[in-house]
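Lab meeting minutes (informal)
Scribe: AK
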Amino acid sequence: MQSLIADISYVPLPAESFNQIISTEVVEYFADERKYFQSIFFHLKPGGIALVSAPFLAIKENNQSEKKRLTIEYIEDICQEIGFCIVESKLIGSVPTILADHIWSVSPKGLLSRVLINKLLLEPLVFFMSLLKGTSYSGSVVILRKE
């Protein structure tokens, strides 16, 4: 098995060169997400699998005032239009969980237990964020197959 680390917008290999492509937390740096996914599609062999992760909210071209939402539905729509089969997609990394883990990691050991943090902080925060539909997760993972 060989590996290649390359810029997906320029891979020095012909079409259908890869059985698998893994791309984590990269799509948000592209001005055109469609071209990013088209390049992955172009380089995958038929039957090939791509695993892509993306943040839910990304700053567009290092401009703090201009943000784009990379929702799982948005990513799925683009991928299906290009011709990918969605094998699996799921939301990952809830903000409350990340916050609770950080609080636990910086607290003096024994002072705050994970159970206490979960009951007092995490569960109420998850409930509150679930009311703000779509914002309780920090990103998504999509597994794609080229037919």
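Next up, CB showed the second protein from the same session:
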Amino acid sequence: MPVDLSRYANNSSRMRRVLLTTIVGVALLFFLLGGPLRTVPAGHVGVKDFFGSVSNDALTRGIHLVVPLTRVVKMSVQTQEIKEVRSDREARRQQQHEGRRDRQHENGPANYPRGTVAQP
């Protein structure tokens, strides 16, 4: 009884195509899930970190294409304004001190109480 092997040869070619398509599909899925696109907001720069290896170049604001599984650390480059706020108690103390100094300057050294030394 002769066996026809031609149908198995045709099937092998088809299986190779299915296997190749599956591998390409899984690789593409891995690439897309790894997130090749990174967004850096305005006022920040991005530093690329690929498994502990930090890149020398910084990513500016915008959308960037990076190697999948690369972590982009966003760092702020905005300047911050710090205002000094005085309490009412400190403000009163400074006003009193300035008032005393002005009165002493107006009165002159002749009007200082006895035992005080005139300072320039």
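CB comment: Residues 40 and 62 are 5 Å apart (CA to CA).
No objections, moving on.
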